[in-house]
Amino acid sequence: MKGKIKINATKIRGMILPIILIIIWQVFSSVGIFEKHLLPGPIVVMGALIELLKTGELITHVLATTYRVLSGFLIGASIAIIFGTLTGYYTKAFELCDPLIQALRTIPSLAWVPLFILWLGIGESSKLSLIAVGVFFPVYLNWVMGIRGVDPKYIEVGAMYHFTPMETIRKILIPATLPFLFTGLRTGLGLGWMFVVAAELMGASSGLGYLMVLGQNSSAPELILGSIIMFAVLGNITDTVLIYIEGKVLHWKESFKGGENNVSH
Amino acid sequence: MSVIKVENLTKTFGKGAAILNNLNIEFKEREIVGILGTSGCGKSTLLRILAGLDTHYDGEVYVHEELHKGVHEKIGFIFQEPRLMPWLTVEENVAFGLRGKDRLERANKMLGIVSLEGYSKYYPKALSGGMAQRVAIARALVNSPEILLLDEPFSALDAFTKMNLQELILGLWRTEKSSTIGIITHDIDEALYLCDRLIVFTKDENQPIAEIRVEINRPRERGDLNLAKLKSKVIGLLRLEPDWQI
Amino acid sequence: MKTRKIITVGLIIGTLAIGILSGCGKKEAGGATISTGTTVAKETKVPKEIKLDYATYNIESLVLKEKGWVEEEFSKDGTKVTFVQSQGSNKSLEFLKSSSVDFGSTAGGAALIAKAKGAPIEGIYIYSKPEWAALVTTKDSPIQSVVDLKGKKVAATIGTDPYIFLLRALDEVGLSKDDIEFIPLQHSDGANALITNQVDAWAGLDPHIARVEVENGARLFYRNVDFNTYGFLNVRSDFAKEYPETVERVIKVYEKAKQWIAENPDEVVTLLEKEAALKKEVAQKQLERTDFTESIPGDNQKAALIKAAEILKKEELIPKETDIEKIVNELVNGSYASKAISK
């Protein structure tokens, strides 16, 4: 029983601030401090979202955007892991490729948009490529850092048992680097959501980003806000799923659970 | 006949002076050899070269009179820390170096020998220091290495666990699970209790300063006066009396 | 625990402070909540700064920018004059609403949409009656008429006259936006997308249409003069209320530009070539399709907007419950222009 009560208290504590802010927002809107053609109140925004839900448009847009993010994420992450394993393990490959990748990494994400649209057009391929690029870098960097940072003590144990390079990679490097991988995946996923906005602002005919453009250009700021809210919700859901998977895969790890928990009361 | 030996071994780190210089050391069949010394004297380096973990040296290493470089299948090594893979269960850790369908079976048998049966499915984060080190010992022994090398294996453990594990090592040697043992320790009591021969180093010399035979029959008594006498001798050799005045 | 309480209280106070401050800012700027806008000089009725937009679809604005007549007019008041480029009605409306410009040029239909959704603007001057929107396709495209658009990719900028044009053209033949694959792109990007065959058709705007006609042999497969809703110069209502004289003076300068255009046709082409980076033939084509006769917003404009409103309601760009006549009357305000031009 005690455990159950504890969880609810934590959840409630987490909801206090958002609820207060929403109430303040609505009050300001009703009173007129926030003008309705610039910042409509939460009730208007929710109304717009519900309308879209009723016509089925919301589902269409949500699915379109989510599909783009997840596809781009899978592509970018896979390439990052394969590439990262090579440069992580083979020093020559690392010396060859890493400087280039570091240079490309510093290019601001949005700078890729016009370039990709120029090369790949305004269809799906430019959007997925954009998202994949965004996801690639954090996943790759964390993965390589992880592999190259694996405690050589573990590798020595493998050496004592005559491990082949494949065995070393498979049995020691990859499991030891998984925690870094998940850090990279979570960051990458967040960036994927960011890149999909940029991708959908240019020439998308569906998706939450398209909804934003529509709202922006037809004086419907409630669509802009509604779209932002949906992004936040979806981003949170996907992140939570990833955290859950991480928890299952990394159950063997000792981890820091917060300063207060280390002191016994 | 020597089981493992080095000839003319010289090891230098970088551009400094040689930490080991023209060493000639051998371990004979059925010996338990202790390598003793203060920190920084090169004993870990020597053991790692014997094990094949360090291959940058001048000189030769012979295993069973055959020239060899690098790791050898007859040599097992136990590190100072347990170095268990945190993502594997205890039994999977013990079976780490094994290949074949019966690896977990053999692993569990070894767990029995180190008195950890029942802990097979535990993860390393749930083990105490002593238990973890026992798992590491099981892992090193599961291949039945003829030569077992240990690098200060018990230095991080409490006195009682230490004594238990020392008995374990003796038991393994007695039952010929491992035939020849080399152990680095800075615990003089431990060395005298376990070993037939002590090779003593100090950090000022890159050669051993003494070799001491312990010709007391086993089983030895920890409180034996003869052991105590040998201990004073070793302490004297190591010049362990502090040379600063307060 | 204590720290958490302090943080919570602090955040609440912080949010309230922001809200109050922006409310205060509103009174000063005489406009939107989140802006800096113009600052009030207490005694005079002239703002310290005037921001106007300029665009390739508003030829007078290009003349004014080049000639410096606005700066001249307001030099004795010490008012700073700034010109901001707009890529389309949608952008001008954004700028107007956020007080990034005080005078914004849009198509009438676009202004109507914004007004119906609560934008506090008024159209105070007609800078042209252009035939600036049309449906365009490539030279070799199989598309011959509006019905051929079914299932095709069509680009347009949401919230602009070409967009409304497209909707009306579709409606005329019994189609709607759902029958095509609509790709929202800004005007110049839409033109490029057509030329690179990424879309099958484009509801375009001059001079971009003229450009692809001349340079790429593009074809206008549907034209309709009446579907164009005039070029409006808009201001925010509270700006006009606070600086009515300023509004009149700007209108006067606009008239001066219009006059100049009528009297110097060749120089206009040269100006367009320079300011809008257009080839000579392109500039000429655009001018051909622009009528400068009307200046004062009145019944003609109202009628055109009311016609456009039908389709806007249908496509839900204007809320269903909008009182069209009321909104049109509030938007089309010829009072300042009548005063300015008669004097």
Question: Can you give a write-up of this model?
Answer:
Chain A has 265 residues and is mainly α. In chain A, 80% of the residues lie in helices and 0% in strands. Chain A is built from 10 helices and no strands. Chain B is 30% helix and 24% strand. Chain B is built from 7 helices and 10 strands. In chain B, strands 6-7-8-3-9-10 form a 6-stranded mixed β-sheet, with helices on both faces. In chain B, strands 2-1-4-5 form a 4-stranded antiparallel β-sheet, with helices on one face. The termini of chain B are far apart. The model of chain B has no long low-confidence stretch (mean pLDDT 87). Chain C is an alpha/beta fold and 343 residues long. Chain C has 2 domains: 49-130 and 229-342, D-Maltodextrin-Binding Protein, domain 2 (3-Layer(aba) Sandwich), CATH 3.40.190.10; 133-227, D-Maltodextrin-Binding Protein, domain 2, CATH 3.40.190.10. Helices cover 50% and strands 17% of the residues of chain C. Chain C has 15 helices and 11 strands. In chain C, helix 6 links the parallel strand 6 and strand 7. The model of chain C is unreliable at 23-38 (pLDDT under 50). Chains A and C meet through helix 1 and helix 9 of A and helix 1, helix 4, helix 5 and strand 7 of C.
What are the SSEs and their pairings?
The complex is a heterotrimer of chains A (265), B (246) and C (343).
Chain A: H1 2-31, H2 42-55, H3 57-89, H4 91-105, H5 112-120, H6 124-148, H7 152-160, H8 165-201, H9 208-217, H10 221-249
Chain B: E1 2-12, E2 18-28, E3 32-37, H1 43-51, E4 58-63, E5 66-67, E6 75-78, H2 90-94, H3 103-113, H4 129-141, E7 147-151, H5 159-174, E8 180-185, H6 188-194, E9 197-201, E10 210-213, H7 225-238
Parallel strand pairs in B: 3-8, 3-9, 6-7, 7-8
Antiparallel strand pairs in B: 1-2, 1-4, 4-5, 9-10
Helix pairs in contact in B: 3-4, 6-7
Chain C: H1 2-29, E1 49-54, H2 59-67, H3 69-75, E2 80-85, H4 89-97, E3 103-107, H5 108-116, E4 121-130, E5 133-137, E6 153-156, H6 161-172, E7 181-184, H7 187-195, E8 201-205, H8 208-216, E9 219-222, E10 231-236, H9 237-242, H10 244-263, H11 265-275, H12 280-288, E11 290-291, H13 299-314, H14 324-331, H15 335-342
Parallel strand pairs in C: 1-2, 6-7, 6-8
Antiparallel strand pairs in C: 3-10, 4-10, 4-11, 5-8, 5-9
